[in-house]
Amino acid sequence: VGPDVDFRHEAFLYGDVDEFLAGTTAFVRDAVTAGEPVLVALRAHQIAALRAELGDLPGVVYEDMPTLGRNPARIIPAWERFVADHAGDAPGLRGIGEPIWAERDAAELVECRIHEALLNVAFRPAGVGLVAGDPPRPTGRPDGRAPPFRLMCPYDTTALDAPVIDAACGTHPLVVQDGETGPSDRFRVEVADLLDEPLPEPRSAPAELRFDRALVRLRRFVAEVATRLAGGRLDRQGLLDVVLAAEELGANSVRHGGGEGVARLWREGRTLVCEVRDRGHITDPLVGRRRPSERQLGGRGLWLVNQVCDLLQLRSSRAGTTARAHFRLAAG
Amino acid sequence: MGSDSEGNPASDFLTGDELGGRVVLSISSRRRGSHATIEIEGELDMQGTARLKDELRKVLTDGIDVVEIDASQVRFVDSAGLTALLAAQAAAAEAGAAFRVAGASAQFARVVNLAGLGDLLLPAD
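Above: the input entities. Below: the structure tokens describing the complete assembly.
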């Protein structure tokens, strides 16, 4: 991370609504004064409060974060689209995005932390490749120069547990607190170890199937088991989504994971989990978070999984790959 | 579609016991003048893509200038199926034929849209 970095990623630690509004409104007003487009991704009540303070300002767009980022793996593509759409002639770009709120469950908190760390990878300096074969980050401008992009991530220190705040200080190079902005001494750039966080054992006995290239067997198995586990809390579209996720994960096992894999399904409270394990090794930590272009052949499997599930936990090492897609069931 | 979106999911193609581990896929084509229609019915997955390719090769042999895909009876499609359709589009273009998708089931349209391929693989209406 050198001085030419065009991405400024800051954690904004606030303790109450007044502090939240003071920090976010100043951030947005500064952007508008400078002619910088802003995308604000927050919860509905926060957007309402912010709009009440700011009124209608030019170049400010709001999005509902629980919709946009229910699966946190969908947030980076949204920021990338915002940057690509506005990079053209803007002097700079700004975003406010709060990916974590008190209702996030334990698995979501882990993935949100990984998401925050991956932002530093996704918006690495323009023109810098990540891993072998990885294209340089597109800048959205024909001259290849990226405008500075400043992203503020609010964290509610009253509602969130201390470890969550600590983790935010580890994923943001800058921390804003009590009106002061300073470098985070806990920040570190992570790439290789992001896909290596351990996953907890299933809390109930899973149904298991070893599958090979005859993926239709996997689809039938997943549909049967998911229907049984969901107990009427999954509609037809929901069931098709689970089957599609399993299919795409299974197809990856067939193509990249040694031609076979093991699928497991179980339920944890209101969540249905579909896991696929194989002997493959994924090295690109941004896989499934790059919006596929119309022209590319292939490379859409994990993207699709991320669009249909509520959470994807992807872990990979030389020992193999484990992917868990979570699906929130309807209240019963 | 519509009518089969109701009812007990366990009773349909996804889980039907009588289907077991069998892929239900039927690919056929018909020709009217220089216009060919390939109809895909059932589940288009990785293993089915070879059949789509074969059918297209058959169709593209003689004086066809429009290839139309009827995906209105597609009950399941995965990313490999979409890739095969993109490849079919490229092959048609290479043979000098126009390519379009004329009909799309709800599930087909959903997956195409999620993959960001709506402009290429959905009927233009």
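Note for the figure: Residues 1-11 of chain B have pLDDT under 50 and may be disordered.
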